[in-house]
Amino acid sequence: MGGNQREKMSQEFRPTRPAIRDRNVFDVTSQTGKHGQDPDGSWGKGSDRQLTSSWRFRAGAAVFLLLLCGIVTILLWPAEVRKVDKISASTAEDEIRDRIGKAEAVAKAFLAESDPQERLRWVRDAEGVIGRMDDYSDEARETPAEIEKMIGHVTEDGRTVTAFAVAMPSGEMRLLEVVETDDGPKVDWDAYARYGTASWEDLLSGKAERAVVRVFCEPSSERPEPFGNQAEWTCFRLSSPDLPQAALGFAQVGSVREAMMKKVILGTPGYRQRFTLEILRHEGKDEPLFEITRCLAVGWILGERDVEEDWREKGE
């Protein structure tokens, strides 16, 4: 993978919607209530005597002082706010640098190991990974590699991920993502290995009919049968470094997955986004075609539940 691949990898790691940076918000609320009224109606009627000129002067002076204090406060307050904002921003930047540093240390420790059993110390869901890592490629499972650069650090939906471009001895570039967990930063090994429940070789040959795969998705206008009806199916171009050539995937028009996948892709520069999908193989005239039956995640890191469920719940 050359310079173009490195640049493409940097562009492809981004949040699914614009990240919201932490900031201090000063909520100055003016609470206005009804003026209290004296129950016996005596307010301002306690004496028949008229106010003297000295009383008027003292009252005027008090009003003037109140106005002066208000003006001074208004002039000084923005400066204090800017000072607090600057301190808060500096503290936030230091915290982000610290989190990136810790994620990088974990990534380097993981990549330095050639023994898969030793790598388990640095990964999330280690117990689950043990049952899957035999299906990883040798390169993803046990080949030491080096970080070329950090390409992203995002917090979205309560999850913080730091992404690194990793240079493999073969010349390939891999995406390694470190997720903050309750046990500290951990590598998502499934995402790094681009793990699927069946190999693309088996899916293309027909040996496997259904699988969960990690792919790149782009818009496509092709209409091969049995997905030729544009009113019923939306076509996506599916690609992966593990695929000899791009395949075609189809989502049913009107489904939550179809609408949201289109929205996410069209909102991504270059119209190319990573997804984790469940696909079902169909025999096409010239090549296998794949129906997209479920969207598990935007990106290659799985959450506690499918993103499609979240979309449906939110009514998106």
Short description:
Helices cover 36% and strands 25% of the residues. It is of the alpha+beta class and 316 residues long.
Written description of the protein model:
By secondary structure, the protein is an alpha+beta fold. The protein contains nine helices and nine strands. β8 (273-283) and β9 form a beta hairpin. 24% of the residues are buried. The model is unreliable at 15-55 (pLDDT under 50).
Query: Main beta sheet: strand number and arrangement?
Result: 5 strands, mixed, barrel
> Approximately how much beta-strand content do the residues carry?
15-25%
What portion of residues is helical? 25-40%
Structural class: alpha+beta
Mean pLDDT: 81
Q: Count the E strands.
A: 9
What Rg do the Cα atoms give? 30 Å
Instruction: Measure the end-to-end span.
Output: 37 Å
Uncertain segments are 15-55
**Shape, principal axes of CA atoms:** globular
User: In DSSP terms, counting alpha (H) and pi (I) runs of 4 or more, how many helices?
Assistant: 9
H/E topology pattern = HHHHHEEEEHHEEEHEEH
Spatial strand order of the main sheet: 5-6-7-9-8
